[in-house]
Give the backbone structure.
Amino acid sequence: MSSREGRRPRRRGRLGRLITLATLGLVGLAVASEMSRPEDQRPWHGRMLGVPYDFRPPTSSRLAAAFWNSDAGLLTPTAWGLGWSLNFGRLLRMATGAAPTWASSSVRSALAPVVPAIVRQPVDPVTRASMDSFPASDAPAR
């Protein structure tokens, strides 16, 4: 029995094919636009037919600006690729009503790769007091 037997073939609808074709077309136009410029004048980022693109290697500051900028809109230009990114910093600000305290520019740029996975909560005073009462060698890791 071959690996194809017993499986239904995946069918992509007309809308899926249209989206794929439009995406490939926009990427092709953006790359063609960049390649038509002299090599020293290629920024590798911009807009093509109103859609933002950025083909530069991503940096922590651009990742932070795309995903954790509480002052920008809910959708921001992507840090790498074509299109927009969901801005979790703005989403958090909308949900809580305040910007995250760790969102200063220096902290944001340094922690951009790990902040989505780690959001530290403040330790309540009772837990803090009980942790401080342990001898240093027996204290739990904070």
Observations:
- The longest strand covers residues 45-48.
- Residues 64 and 142 are 26 Å apart (CA to CA).
- Residues 117-124, 127-140 have pLDDT under 50 and may be disordered.
